[in-house]
């Protein structure tokens, strides 16, 4: 797979004009664009249709988390938009994930495990995964990933720091077929705002990531232009691909 095919650029803006400008600039350098909560709430499904209508792929990252019926209906709407991939949060439960599988059409279902903003930081015990989800981070990621395999999802989203652990505990074929999509990508000595469990692109690819979601590491880079930042990360991925092929 070409290096750019592993890159998803997050459209973390709140206007149609800004989003379409990012699409215009980067469309030939990435595999698809992520539309998350902020942009979707600001601009709605029509912008998703417009981006797809221009010949681009969209990863709709809304992390559906509701009753099984509602998740199934929302999934059907996402599929009808023509999105390449979309997310359901594993904490919605097995029944909701099964409804998503049943209604996903040609879109790929990714199960969101534990957000990269959560960790086992005991300095703030009320913001830890154990406090919120009942287990330490990697235990909960593993259990949610097992649920993703069980329901027949196409992939998961997780921190790149979870990849080695998942391969060790779940190295069977049904796990390996899952797409591993990882946010929390940073450049060396740079920590993306709001994310705690991060890695560089090179580290994430070496540990088994299939797609990297790039956000402020590109659009708010501290070294050169956003395009220069993207090309640096693309080169990182390419160097790993050459070494492993």
TrEMBL record:
<feature type="binding site">
    <location>
        <position position="216"/>
    </location>
    <ligand>
        <name>substrate</name>
    </ligand>
</feature>
<dbReference type="InterPro" id="IPR014732">
    <property type="entry name" value="OMPdecase"/>
</dbReference>
<dbReference type="GO" id="GO:0004590">
    <property type="term" value="F:orotidine-5'-phosphate decarboxylase activity"/>
</dbReference>
<dbReference type="InterPro" id="IPR011060">
    <property type="entry name" value="RibuloseP-bd_barrel"/>
</dbReference>
<keyword id="KW-0210">Decarboxylase</keyword>
<feature type="domain" description="Orotidine 5'-phosphate decarboxylase">
    <location>
        <begin position="6"/>
        <end position="233"/>
    </location>
</feature>
<keyword id="KW-0456">Lyase</keyword>
<dbReference type="GO" id="GO:0044205">
    <property type="term" value="P:'de novo' UMP biosynthetic process"/>
</dbReference>
<dbReference type="GO" id="GO:0005829">
    <property type="term" value="C:cytosol"/>
</dbReference>
<comment type="function">
    <text>Catalyzes the decarboxylation of orotidine 5'-monophosphate (OMP) to uridine 5'-monophosphate (UMP).</text>
</comment>
<dbReference type="GO" id="GO:0006207">
    <property type="term" value="P:'de novo' pyrimidine nucleobase biosynthetic process"/>
</dbReference>
<feature type="active site" description="For OMPdecase activity">
    <location>
        <position position="61"/>
    </location>
</feature>
<feature type="active site" description="For OMPdecase activity">
    <location>
        <position position="63"/>
    </location>
</feature>
<feature type="binding site">
    <location>
        <position position="34"/>
    </location>
    <ligand>
        <name>substrate</name>
    </ligand>
</feature>
<protein>
    <recommendedName>
        <fullName>Orotidine 5'-phosphate decarboxylase</fullName>
        <ecNumber>4.1.1.23</ecNumber>
    </recommendedName>
</protein>
<dbReference type="Pfam" id="PF00215">
    <property type="entry name" value="OMPdecase"/>
</dbReference>
<comment type="pathway">
    <text>Pyrimidine metabolism; UMP biosynthesis via de novo pathway; UMP from orotate: step 2/2.</text>
</comment>
<feature type="binding site">
    <location>
        <position position="195"/>
    </location>
    <ligand>
        <name>substrate</name>
    </ligand>
</feature>
<dbReference type="InterPro" id="IPR013785">
    <property type="entry name" value="Aldolase_TIM"/>
</dbReference>
<feature type="binding site">
    <location>
        <position position="116"/>
    </location>
    <ligand>
        <name>substrate</name>
    </ligand>
</feature>
<feature type="active site" description="For OMPdecase activity">
    <location>
        <position position="66"/>
    </location>
</feature>
<dbReference type="InterPro" id="IPR001754">
    <property type="entry name" value="OMPdeCOase_dom"/>
</dbReference>
<feature type="binding site">
    <location>
        <position position="12"/>
    </location>
    <ligand>
        <name>substrate</name>
    </ligand>
</feature>
<keyword id="KW-0665">Pyrimidine biosynthesis</keyword>
